Amino acid sequence: MNEAFKHTRLAKAIVITILILGGFLMVLPFVWMILSSVKTDMEILQIPPTLWPKSITLQNFINLFTQMDFLVYLKNTIIIVLFSFLGLFFNAMAGYGFAKYKFRGKNGLFYLVLATMMIPGQVTMIPVYLMLNMVHLTNTLLGIALPGLVGAFGIFLFRQFMSTISDEIIEAARLDGCSEFYIFMKIILPVSRPVLAVQGILTFIAGWNSFIWPLIIANDQKYYTLSVGLALLKGQHASNYALQMAGSSFMVIPIVIVFLVLQKYILQGFNVSGMK
Amino acid sequence: MKKMSKTITAVLLSLVLILSFGLSGCSSSATTSGSSAKNKSITVWFFGDQPQPFQKLVKKFQKQSGIQVNVQAIPWANAHDKLLTAIASKSGPDVITMGTSWMPEFVKAGALADLTPYIKDNPNLKQSNFFKGSVATAEYNGKYYGAPWYVDTRVLFYRTDLLKKVGYSSAPKTWNELLDAATKLSKRGKGYYGLTIDPKEQSTAFMFARQNGSNLIENGKAQFNQPAFVGAINYMNQFIKQGATPKTDLGIDLTQSFGGKGIVPMFISGSWNINTINTTIPDVKGKWATAVLPKGKVNNKSILGGADLTIFQYSKNKANSAKLINYLSGTRAQMDWLKISTDVPAVTAAWENKALKDDPLYKTFGEQAKTAEPLPLVPQFEQIAQNELASWEKIYRSGADVQKTMDAFNSSSQKLLDQK
Amino acid sequence: MKIFLNKSSPYFFIAPALILLLLFSLIPIFVSLIISFTDINITGLADWSQIHFIGLENYISIFQDPNFLQSIGNTLFYVLFGVPLVIICSMGIALLINFGDSWIFRLFRLIFYAPSITNVVAVAVVWNYLYNPQFGLLNFLLHFVHLGPIPWLQDPTVAKIALIILALWRAIGVNMLIFLAALQGIPKAYYEAAMIDGANSWQRLTKITIPMLRFATFFVTVTTLIGWLQFFEEPFVMTGGGPLNSTNSIALFIYQNGFQFSKFGYAAAGSMILFVIIIVVTLIQFRGQQKNADNQM
C-alpha cells in the first residue's frame, strides 16, 4: 500500500511538471494579451518588447467605452447569447432523437445534418442573406441570431454522448408511464450534464464572439456586437493595438467566468455505472 | 410543477420562433434598411475606423439642413462583403464612402447613381473643383459616379539626418540617385537597408512602370511584358540584389524601421504616416521629411487613390444625399476632415489654405497629387494586382527570370481583361 | 395516444433543428450548386438577367488553375500532420489533467483552454510577434540553445508548419474538454476490476480507457478532419496564403475568388469540390466505424 502510494505521488509530480511546461506555452499569448491591454500605445510597439508593462494605464479601457458604443454592443451580444442557448436546447433534442430512436429515414437525415458541417461558411452567406431579406428579417436581432442557431457540430456531439446512455433507464421510465418529453427533460438531460457543460461553454463562446452575421444583417450600428466593434478598431493602414488588446481582454472575462462555473459539471460524471 | 412550466416555456419558445419566421413575410412593421425610413434622414456607410470622427464631421450639416445623418461604420476587412449583400438585396445605405479602386467594379454592377443631375443645385460637386486624377476615378462612359472626397497619393518619406551622412543634403531626385542613396545607406552595416519596398503593396510596380514610360493597359491590351514595365521590375530588383531593400519581410513596424537608428530610412507611402510617425516615434522629430518622388525615365508620377463620395443606386433619398456630398466637398469640411483623420483634401482650393500650403510635410502631397494618376480603372484590376504581387514575389525571392515571369503575368492578365 | 406519441416523438425531437438547418444550410448549399454552373459575378448579382449557364466551364478551368491545385496540395499537408497531432495532443492532455482533481488540475483546465477563448485579433498580433524572424520570442529562445534563426513565416515549408503549430495550439482546448467529459463516463468499476486482476497502469490505459473513449475519439476525428479540410482562419490572418502561395488552403482560395474577386460561380465550383472531398472522407470514416463498433448508424 505504502509502495503504491509513493508511486502515485511520483507519477503526480511528473504529470504536473509536464503540464506546467506545456501550460506555459499555451497560456503565454493569453497573458500577453492581458498585460498588453494596460500598456501605452508606444510601449506595445516597442522592440524588444516588454512582457511586464512599464507603467500600467487603464486609459485603453476608458477609451473603449467612451470612443465606442461598447455598452450597446454589449447588450446586443447578450441577447444573441440568450438566443444561442435556445439553439443549444434544439441541438440537444435533435441529438437525443438521433441517438435513442429508430425511425424511418434516420440515417439519411443524419447524413444531411452532417453535410451542413462540410460546406465552407462563406459559401452560404449571400443566399442566406437574400432569404432573410425576403422575409424582412434583415436589420433585426432575430435575423442575426437565426442562421447560427443550430449546428451540426452540436447535434453530432450530443448524439455521440447520448448513445452511451444505457437503454434500460429509458425503458424503465417508459414502463412507469413517463412521456417521451418528460424522459428527455428529467432523465436524459441530467445524466448528460458533462456534455451539456461542454456545449454550454462552446455555445456561450460562439454567441459571445459572433461576428459575421451581426455585421452582414445589421444595417444600423445599434445592432452591432462586441466582435464587430472590435473589428472597427482595425484601420485601413494602421491599427490601434492597445485598444484592440483592451477590447479582446474585456471580451474574455465573461468567458472565463462561464468556464469556471460550468467546468465542475464536466467532471460530475454520468453516474450511470451502477446500471450497466 | 416546475417541470411543467419548463416544458411549456420550451414549446412556446420554439413556436414563437417558427411562427415569427413564417409570418414575418406578411408583417409590414419590419424595416428593411435605413434608406426609406424617413425622408429627412439618410444613412452613410463609412468604411474604416470608429464612426465618431465622421459623425463629428456631419454635425454642422445636420444643424444647417435639418437632415438627419445616420453613420454606420463598417470594418475595412469586411467592407467588400457588406457591399455585395447590399447589391444583392438592392437595399442598403444612401451614401457610401467608396475606395477609388472599387469604383470600376461597383459602377459596372450598376450600384452607383450618376451625380450629373445634382451638380446644378450642388455646385461643390463640379468636376473642376477636384484633382484631375481623382475625377478620373469617378467618370465612366461620360457619367459621373462620385465626388472625390480625399486623395491618397504616395510620396517619399526619408530620414534627413541619415541621408545627409551618405552625402544627400536633399531628397534623391532621380531613379539613379534613389538607388545610389539606398545602396549607400545599406552599407552602414549588417541588418541595415535603404528603401522599403512593401511586398504587400499592390501599387508599387505599376507606379515605377509608369515613371518608366509604361501605359500599363492600352486599349484593353496589357503592356506588362513590354520593355518599359520589365525595366521597372528590373529596377526594383536591383534594390533587392544590392541589399538596399530587405529580401524577406523583416516583420517590423514603422516604429522600428524608421525610428531610432533607422534600419530602413526611406519608404514610399501615403499621408497617414505623418500622424503615425508623430505619435509613435516622437524621437525622430525634425529628422525626417517628405519629398516628391524621384523622376524615372519619363516622369515622377505617383499613384492616386483615396475615396469618392457616392450615392447608392437604390437609395430613395438621392437629393438629400447630394446635399450632404455637397457639404462634404466644401473647403471647410475638407479641412475639418484633414484635422480629424489626416486624409488630405481632394478639393484643389483647400490646398490654398495655410495649414496645408505652409506645412512642408503636407505640401508635398498637394504637389504630387497634381500629376498623380489612378491605377487602371478596370474591374479586374484587383486580381491583376494580386497576380503582379505573386509574380514579383517569384522574382525577388526565388530569382525567377524576369522576362519569362512577366510574359506569363501578361498573358494571365490579358485573359482576365478579355473576360466581360 | 401513447403509441402515436412514440412513433412521432423522434420527429418531434429532431424537427426544430432540422427545419433551421434546412433553411440556413441545405437550401444555400443547393443554391451554391446551381450557381457553380453559371458565370455569376457582381454584375449578375445586381441584375439576374445577366447570369448565364455555362455548364461545366467553371469546373474545367478551376482544375487548370495552378493556384487551386497548389491549395489542394497544401490542404492535404495540413490534414496529414494536423489531424493526428490534434487528436494525440488533446487526448494526452485530457488524460494528464484527469489524473487529479486538486486546484492545480482545475487551473490547468483553464490554462489549456485559454487559447480557444482568445480573440483571433489578439492571436494574430501575438503570434506574429512570436514568429518574428528577428525580434520574435521563439527565435530568441532558440538562440539560447544555439539554434536558428528559423524563418517561421518566410519559408514556404516552414510557414506551413508554423501555421499547423498555431492551429494545434488553438484546437487543443475544445477537444480536450470533449475527452475530459467522455472520461467521466467510464465506470469506475472497470478500473477496480482491472486492479484486482493485477493490470498495470499501461494496460488499464490501453485496454480500458482508450477503447471506452471511442465515441469521443470518433467525434473528434470527424470534426477535426472536417475542420482541417476547411482550414481558413490561420492562413487568413497570418500569411494571406503566402509566401509564394505556399500556405493557401482550399477554403482561403474560395474566399479570395468569391469575395475579393467577386467570381461567385468559380468560387462555388471550388466549394462544391471541397464539399465532395469532405463527404468522401467522412463516409470512409463512418464505414470504418461501422465495421468496428456495434450498433452505431
TrEMBL record, chain A:
<keyword id="KW-0762">Sugar transport</keyword>
<feature type="transmembrane region" description="Helical">
    <location>
        <begin position="110"/>
        <end position="132"/>
    </location>
</feature>
<feature type="transmembrane region" description="Helical">
    <location>
        <begin position="195"/>
        <end position="216"/>
    </location>
</feature>
<feature type="transmembrane region" description="Helical">
    <location>
        <begin position="241"/>
        <end position="262"/>
    </location>
</feature>
<feature type="domain" description="ABC transmembrane type-1">
    <location>
        <begin position="73"/>
        <end position="262"/>
    </location>
</feature>
<keyword id="KW-0813">Transport</keyword>
<keyword id="KW-1003">Cell membrane</keyword>
<keyword id="KW-0472">Membrane</keyword>
<protein>
    <submittedName>
        <fullName>Multiple sugar transport system permease protein</fullName>
    </submittedName>
</protein>
<feature type="transmembrane region" description="Helical">
    <location>
        <begin position="138"/>
        <end position="158"/>
    </location>
</feature>
<dbReference type="InterPro" id="IPR035906">
    <property type="entry name" value="MetI-like_sf"/>
</dbReference>
<feature type="transmembrane region" description="Helical">
    <location>
        <begin position="12"/>
        <end position="35"/>
    </location>
</feature>
<keyword id="KW-0812">Transmembrane</keyword>
<comment type="similarity">
    <text>Belongs to the binding-protein-dependent transport system permease family.</text>
</comment>
<dbReference type="InterPro" id="IPR000515">
    <property type="entry name" value="MetI-like"/>
</dbReference>
From TrEMBL, chain B:
<keyword id="KW-0732">Signal</keyword>
<keyword id="KW-0762">Sugar transport</keyword>
<dbReference type="InterPro" id="IPR006059">
    <property type="entry name" value="SBP"/>
</dbReference>
<feature type="signal peptide">
    <location>
        <begin position="1"/>
        <end position="29"/>
    </location>
</feature>
<protein>
    <submittedName>
        <fullName>Multiple sugar transport system substrate-binding protein</fullName>
    </submittedName>
</protein>
<keyword id="KW-0813">Transport</keyword>
<comment type="similarity">
    <text>Belongs to the bacterial solute-binding protein 1 family.</text>
</comment>
<dbReference type="Pfam" id="PF01547">
    <property type="entry name" value="SBP_bac_1"/>
</dbReference>
UniProtKB/TrEMBL annotation, chain C:
<feature type="transmembrane region" description="Helical">
    <location>
        <begin position="76"/>
        <end position="98"/>
    </location>
</feature>
<keyword id="KW-0762">Sugar transport</keyword>
<dbReference type="InterPro" id="IPR051393">
    <property type="entry name" value="ABC_transporter_permease"/>
</dbReference>
<dbReference type="InterPro" id="IPR000515">
    <property type="entry name" value="MetI-like"/>
</dbReference>
<feature type="transmembrane region" description="Helical">
    <location>
        <begin position="212"/>
        <end position="231"/>
    </location>
</feature>
<keyword id="KW-1003">Cell membrane</keyword>
<feature type="domain" description="ABC transmembrane type-1">
    <location>
        <begin position="72"/>
        <end position="285"/>
    </location>
</feature>
<feature type="transmembrane region" description="Helical">
    <location>
        <begin position="12"/>
        <end position="35"/>
    </location>
</feature>
<comment type="similarity">
    <text>Belongs to the binding-protein-dependent transport system permease family.</text>
</comment>
<feature type="transmembrane region" description="Helical">
    <location>
        <begin position="110"/>
        <end position="130"/>
    </location>
</feature>
<keyword id="KW-1133">Transmembrane helix</keyword>
<feature type="transmembrane region" description="Helical">
    <location>
        <begin position="161"/>
        <end position="183"/>
    </location>
</feature>
<protein>
    <submittedName>
        <fullName>Multiple sugar transport system permease protein</fullName>
    </submittedName>
</protein>
<keyword id="KW-0472">Membrane</keyword>
<dbReference type="InterPro" id="IPR035906">
    <property type="entry name" value="MetI-like_sf"/>
</dbReference>
